[in-house]
What we know:
In chain A, about 85% of the residues lie in helices and about 0% in strands. Chain A is mainly α and about 240 residues long. Chain B folds into two domains: about 5-295, Spore Coat Polysaccharide Biosynthesis Protein SpsA, Chain A; about 305-425, no CATH class. Chain B is built from 19 helices and eleven strands. Chain B has helices at about 15-25, 40-55, 75-80, 85-90, 110-125, 145-155, 170-185, 200-210, 215-220, 225-235, 255-270, 275-280, 305-320, 320-325, 330-340, 350-365, 370-390, 400-415, 415-425, and strands at about 30-35, 60-65, 100-105, 130, 160-165, 190, 200, 240-245, 285, 290, 295. In chain B, strands 1, 2, 3, 4, 5, 7, 8, 10 and 11 form a nine-stranded mixed sheet that branches. Chain B has a two-stranded parallel ribbon with strand order 6-9. Chain B is globular and about 65 Å long. Mean pLDDT of chain B is about 90; it is low at about 1-10. Classes of the chains: A mainly alpha (about 240), B alpha/beta (about 425). The interface of A and B includes residues 59, 140, 143 and 144 of A.
Amino acid sequence: MREMIVDELTQAMHGISRGFAHFLPRLIVLVIIGFVGWVVAYALKLALRSILRLLKFDKLSENAGASQLLSKAGLPSATEVLIQFAFGVAWLGFILLGVSVLGVFGLQEQIGRFFLFLPRLFVALFILFVGLLAASFFSRAALLAAVNSNLPSPRLLGIAIRSIIIVFVLSMVFEELGVADQTMLLAFGIAFGALMLGLALAFGIGGQDLARQFLEKRFVREKEDEGRKDELSPL
Amino acid sequence: MKKVRTADDSILTDEFLRQLINVGEVDILVGLPTHNNAKTIAPIVATIQAGLLTYFPRDRAAIINADGGSQDGTPELVLNAAIDDLRRRSNVSALRTMHVISTQYASSPTRGDALRSILAAGELLRAKACVIVSPESTQIKTDWLTKLLRPVYAEEVDLVLPTYSRHKFDGILLTNLLYPMTRALYGLRIREPYALDFAFSGPLGSQFLAQNAWQDETARAGSETYFTLNSIAGHARICQSFLGTREHVERRSSDLIPALRQTVGALFSSLGPHMTLWSAATGSQPVPTIGPEREFTLEPLRVNRKRLREMFSTGVAELESVFQTILSTSTLEELRRIARLEEGVFRYPAELWVKTIYEFAVAYHKAVISRDHILQALAPLFRGRALTFLVENRNGPAETVENNIEALCLEFERGKPYLLALWNGRE
Lengths: 235, 427
């Protein structure tokens, strides 16, 4: 009886030792891959920082309005956020690669999905950045045109254009990420339709007088301008 | 619409090139850039022809019309302008053939492309002297040609720029920005850096044609200003010639933005390439001038001051987010203060105007936002400055107007160290 127990224990110990001996090299590989990943990610971080400085990315993001958003959220500059993000993703990628070496059941599939998701994540971020840039550019263009044409409420016009573009961009980003894409598409359609209908109703029914005044003022002014043209000849 | 075909290695159309080859060589080339100028072009062409017959009867001359896709028959009017009546009436005749050629350089007008076509034609025809005449110069006299061309033709100068007798409130952008800033930067008192009627030597034209700025949108929009600034930078011999009266041209308020692009855009763009030149220049020197440097007419002019004031204040309030990226805090704060002033006491002081312009110039150079947006943002502020200029000179004689412009010029010269400090990032 005693011998049987000792045998069983010895066999169990051998099993654990074998398992540990089998697992230890993989763990070491994981640590090595993790370390190499950190070095690579850090090098990537340094390279990216130099490239973004050369491209004056902070200025671009300031123009796009992204810096203001980050500042309001208490986050560092756009360059720093992007660098940390790239560093994090690169290192995580290496760690997950190392984890896959461990051969843990079910984890391989999840890791594969993560790597497949990465390109979409980058595309979504790119769309978001370009979209913010476009929103900023076109809203400013509208604001300047409205001010120089002496139109009423120029800032409102600028904000409206910025909002429409941002909503459109967000719907594209969510669609790219596959996050409730149908819901987002539907929500965008409803929001955009409602906005246009609201504007049409507000201007056509609610603001009949205002519309008449606006059109009268516009055409009368054009006629006046035609007769008087501009009082100043700049050149 | 006719499709413009261009020769493989040339900006000139094949047909235009063929006509130029038939002409051979000329002594004088008159360039006439047009776009829908049917109302005014025929008498201008007739005057040009009369001027050539009267003052240059022994010289080979060609009139080149570069048209930007007119829909009103302008090129036909240029080609059909007959000089037989003039010959009979004035008893003068050219000893050589006077060629008139019209070409459509594009289906839509671009000043730079028009000038480029004329310069290319001048180079091909080996013209000794070229003169550009604006299709808006309805007051052109026959002696304008000799006043502009003679100094170049005599090889005394490379570029002749015009001065005019103008209404005191005409060309406010010139008197309040372009002239004082060009003078402060480059040290030359050129009254019309943006010239529509001007003459230049063949070599200067070829030199300008060879530069690489033709693809740049700003350079193409403000090619006349660029021409002047490049000539200054190239140390060309420049003089001014008084042409006489230039009538007040009524314009719409929407014309201000293109005017800013043609002049201020070109001036701001030139700062980068010519930095070594303007940073070293101190003070200013007069430019040799044939005739008076400037004359002002003083007849009353209807001006809507209330609208100018309103557009300035609205601009300052509504464009605050844009100004925050362009202007310093102190300048913006000062603008906010004057925007709140009542119309009766409103004043946009010269020193603040100079500071504003220099900050805009540096913001333009650094492209803190879209450069075109920077120019557009300047429009409401210019209206504020124009209002101050109108009020200061409302009842003043020509001397007062001239003194006020001179004072502004000196303010621009005094403010130059501030521009340099901003440029070098010390402010």
